[in-house]
Amino acid sequence: MRYSAQIYMHGKHGQWLTPIYPRIGDIGRYLRRCFDRKMFDHHDESEIKEIVVLKARRGKMPIIHGYYDFRDDRLILDRSKPADLNNLMYGLE
User: Which helix (H) or strand (E) is 74 found in, with range?
Assistant: First the structure.
């Protein structure tokens, strides 16, 4: 599978998109490198509001794989937000 993420920030920081990776853990490592190198304009993980991981599909729109939190340099799945329901609402399934 191939995964990417949309990172939504608190306040006026907007959203960030990650490159496509073969594993979700690679996205977490990418975020850690970005914060360590101060590639984001806010430099603080606590400013992350939500991370939406998308799963790529050949010839179709990507679907929402899940909503994640960034804790201890890892992406942790937030099971309280159902990705399947949101995929249906957005017409991705």
Answer: strand 74-77
Q: pTM, whole model, 2 decimals?
A: 0.86
Residue 93 and residue 74: Cα distance in Å, rounded?
Answer: 28
Which pLDDT score, from 0 to 100, does residue 48 have? Answer: 86
**Residue given tokens 């490159």 in the structure block:** 19
- The tens digit of pLDDT for each residue in 68-81 reads 998 888 899 999 98
CA torsion 78-82-86-92 (nearest 10°) is 90
Number of H helices, E strands in the chain: 2, 5
Helix, strand or coil for residue 54? strand
What single DSSP character describes residue 21? B
The span from the CA of 31 to the CA of 64, in Å, is 19
